[in-house]
């Protein structure tokens, strides 16, 4: 037995939550797990939404402070526009990592093309470390063709959104150029057939979860865990000596997102779109927003072009 194999001790599922459909924005529907009463404030993660936006719905002008959003498109297209002049489209497989920092006012609106799919995707809210709560807002964006891929075996494909995954012998370790403020890894794993395995290392002490997009997947040692089915979010154990997660596809086609993050030893105080580490911080966020100051200059005078179609 190799040293690499011997040190592979898999995490297991300690809680599995079915993502329930929830109204959000203006007429949109999301499947939410993290951020509900069943799974709240799983540091550093604040909310996980699997969105499907039908015609006539969207997310018109709204503010944020103190957190980041990772938006990963699955089908269709979305437009984005903010009050600092940043705008653009993201389509299938594209990524937008937005650091709201001390203030952003923006709109996120779907594009519906004749005969096309509804825009669907994942949006993960991630808490910012206290030291970065009031940093300047910024973006990291990648088109689908720019996101690195790992191929650990012929029937397993891994899109490396954030972090580092093991590829085949020719690829070695594959890393994403995305650099979040705080530790966060995010992988989109596709299995082409049942019985395929994938191993992902997870840093010691980090919190981790998975979300099933398609099919079913078993977590942990073979035979010791039941398959987890579509739309379930599974929190993983973090016991001493566990070095990663072993996944085994249990359906002919399976797709699973694996996410891990470094816990933040700070209070989470969230009120709507603002996430701070104290009640005083939340009060200051509302005051700054109302006064148009400290990151929200011009917020009340600004109207997005893309949001006007919902007025």
Automatic annotation (TrEMBL):
Looking at the record, the residues that make up the Pirin N-terminal domain are: 30-126
Q: Where is the Pirin C-terminal domain?
A: 193-294
Any one Gene Ontology MF annotation carried by this entry is: metal ion binding
Q: Which CDD domains match?
A: cupin_pirin_C (cd02247), cupin_pirin_N (cd02909)
Cofactor-binding details, from the entry: Binds 1 Fe cation per subunit.
Instruction: Indicate whether Metal-binding appears among the record's keywords.
Output: yes
Q: What is this protein called?
A: RmlC-like cupin domain-containing protein
């Amino acid at each position: 037995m190799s040293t690499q194999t011997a040190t592979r001790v898999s995490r297991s599922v300690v809680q599995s939550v079915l993502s329930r459909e929830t109204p959000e924005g203006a007429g949109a529907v999301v499947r939410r797990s993290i951020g509900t009463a069943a799974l709240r404030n799983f540091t550093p993660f604040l909310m996980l939404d699997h969105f499907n936006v039908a015609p006539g719905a969207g997310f018109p002008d709204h503010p944020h402070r103190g957190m980041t959003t990772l938006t990963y498109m699955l089908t269709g297209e979305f437009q984005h526009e903010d009050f600092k002049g940043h705008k653009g489209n993201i389509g299938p497989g594209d990524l937008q990592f937005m650091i709201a920092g001390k203030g952003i006012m923006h709109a996120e609106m779907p594009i519906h093309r004749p005969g096309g799919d509804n825009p669907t995707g994942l949006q993960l809210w991630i808490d910012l470390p206290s030291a970065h709560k009031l940093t300047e807002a910024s973006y990291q964006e990648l088109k689908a063709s720019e996101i690195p891929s790992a191929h650990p075996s012929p029937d397993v494909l891994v899109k490396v959104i954030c972090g580092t995954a093991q590829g085949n012998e020719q690829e070695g370790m594959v890393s994403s150029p995305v650099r979040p403020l705080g530790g966060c890894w995010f992988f989109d794993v596709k299995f082409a057939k049942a019985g395929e395995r994938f191993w992902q290392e997870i840093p010691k002490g980090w919190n981790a979860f998975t979300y099933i997009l398609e099919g079913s997947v078993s977590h942990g040692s073979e035979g010791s865990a039941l398959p987890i089915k579509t739309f379930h979010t599974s929190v993983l154990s973090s016991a001493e000596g566990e070095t990663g997660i072993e996944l085994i596809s249990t359906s002919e086609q399976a797709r699973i997102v694996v996410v891990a993050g470094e816990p933040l030893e700070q209070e989470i105080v969230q009120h709507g779109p603002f996430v701070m580490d104290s009640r005083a911080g939340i009060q200051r966020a509302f005051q700054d927003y109302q006064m148009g100051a400290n990151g929200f200059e011009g917020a009340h005078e600004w109207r997005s072009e893309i949001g006007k179609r919902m007025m």
